Amino acid sequence: MNFIDLSNQSTNVTGVILAGGASSRMGSNKALLPYRGGRFIEAIHRQLARHFAEIIVVTNTPQQYSFLPCRTVCDLFPGMGALAGIHAGLFHSTTPAIFAVACDMPYLDDELIRYLTSRYNPAGVVIPESDGGLEPLHAVYGRGCLGGMEKSLAAGKKRVVSFFDGVPVEVVPAGLVACFDGGFNSFRNINTPADYFSLRGEQTVVHSSDNSSAISKRRE
């Protein structure tokens, strides 16, 4: 049985898992693929539960996630992609901010999550940068973003960054992110069967100390 140290959970930020993608390249629902003795989304949920007292899954098929011990909510702007999912999670949360992450990101880093959420701004965005640019599906959004998100969505704008001009945005530069996650693995996701089988072929070693975990990966 996995025990969660409740003393480490934030009550100011809600963990939001975005599970609304089409999974078209995978051919089946990525969130429900077998992983670490359960389903993919269960591993993401377990990790977020170390950080957040409230967790929400955003999905338009809530019946598929009834096994999770958290709330499921649907998009208020159906068909509008990740921005609609982030908006729904923020709208339904009971905290000043959310940490939003995709359901298919297996290499989340606890220390990076802790750093980002410690800097939450109820009025704006805290977003990390990798060597590939901004990472909006691994970012913190304050309740003050709701108006800008809704304006963008109502105008048919799907890009997550489309409302950034209207709110305070703190970019955590790639150099600082690399201090936590040198390979930017936190932002890797699983899109294709090849990605998934590569992931299943990796050996993971989990080291626990001071109530935190770090995952070191080595390929066969």
Automatic annotation (TrEMBL):
Which HAMAP family does the record associate with it? MobA
Major subcellular location class: cytoplasm
- Source organism per entry reads Geotalea daltonii (strain DSM 22248 / JCM 15807 / FRC-32) (Geobacter daltonii)
**Annotated keywords:** Cytoplasm, GTP-binding, Magnesium, Metal-binding, Molybdenum cofactor biosynthesis, Nucleotide-binding, Nucleotidyltransferase, Transferase
| Task performed by this protein | Transfers a GMP moiety from GTP to Mo-molybdopterin (Mo-MPT) cofactor (Moco or molybdenum cofactor) to form Mo-molybdopterin guanine dinucleotide (Mo-MGD) cofactor.
Primary gene name: mobA
Specify the protein name.
Probable molybdenum cofactor guanylyltransferase
Q: Taking every annotated instance into account, which residue ranges of this chain make up the domain MobA-like NTP transferase? A: 15-160
> Could you give a single Gene Ontology term from the biological process aspect?
Mo-molybdopterin cofactor biosynthetic process
Any one Pfam family match given in the protein's UniProt record, by short name: NTP_transf_3
- Family that this chain belongs to: Belongs to the MobA family.
What molecular function terms (GO) are annotated for this protein? GTP binding; metal ion binding; molybdenum cofactor guanylyltransferase activity
